[in-house]
Sequence to fold (68 residues):
Amino acid sequence: MNCYDCHLLGTTVPAVAVCRHCGGAVCPEHIKSNADDVMRPEGMGLTTLNEPARRLTCLICHEAEHQT
Ligand SMILES: [Zn+2]
Ligand SMILES: [Zn+2]
Fold:
């Protein structure tokens, strides 16, 4: 599979990851890796675990999720 964003730009670059949000395949130039806090119920509340999970999104979805 090739990077979708590069495809839109008219180039062909092998994809290394898949956006978790839109499912588009993207190359290292077009991927955004974010820490995703993992919450665990503990007692009456939630505890954030020390080791966050990884969350890969394309730049489009990253922007969409972080717009104000
Ligand atoms: Zn790309
Ligand atoms: Zn996406």
Q: What stands out?
A: The chain has a mean pLDDT of 93.
